Input
Amino acid sequence: MSIELIAVSVFFAVMLVLAFLYRKSTLKHLAMMPDETMLFEESGVRVEQAGSPRSVRFPKCTVRVTNHRIIIAQKTLFGNTMVLRHVITYSRYTKNTDLRATLSKGHLIMQISPSQVSCAEGPDGTIVTIPIPDSALTKGQYISYTTNHGEKYREIFSR
Output
């Protein structure tokens, strides 16, 4: 058996295991918290997770803002499934980002204070920037995206 065939076989085996482990890491399967209500949602957003050591862009995202969380999910390449990328709690205590939580859930889970969300006017709308708490995975990183709901963000996060 050639080394290339072994490498390809291992790659596909890992992909199958990850697909099985993260099959419920979708927006559809994310349960709402008790007394959580959706405030607004925006589709087709390009979200960037930037900072060191490198940046990643997530196209075609849905950003859902509730009275407790900001939930960012990305549309899959084939199909209409929305895969979770970030679940950011800003009004209650939750577990911060760590390697175990990320690997077990398949997305970043984090806690921030509302004052950490910053809004700045950009050429295409309001640029929302959220720092990611430092961990082994996310040292010096932040999430950034442009929204058409700038006033709503300022109202929620200027408290």
